[in-house]
Every structure is written in structure tokens, then in C-alpha cells.
Design brief:
Structural class: mainly alpha
Order of helices and strands: H
Oligomer: single chain
Number of strands: 0
Distance between the termini: 16 Å
Number of helices: 1
Length: about 50
Amino acid sequence: MAPRKTPTAQGRFSCSPCARAALIAFVASDDAEMITGQMILCDGGGYLH
């Protein structure tokens, strides 16, 4: 996928590696025990466009 040329609704150009790592850590933790069968987008708000 090519990098974004315009910022997303949140003013970002993409989801940072740190944000992806935080999402993975959350989904792997006990705090996410009630989340099942979901598709979670980590795109810096790009889906809102």
C-alpha cells in the first residue's frame, strides 16, 4: 500500500508502529477478553475519509 499523501481525519498520515504495537498488546491482554470476532482497523482515522 502506498503511503498517504493527505492527513487523515485525526491529522495523521498513517498508523504508527507504536500505535500498532499498543493495539496488539491490548488485544493479547486480559483486558480484551470480551472482544471476539472483530476486525479492528489501525489506520490513523483513514477509514473516516
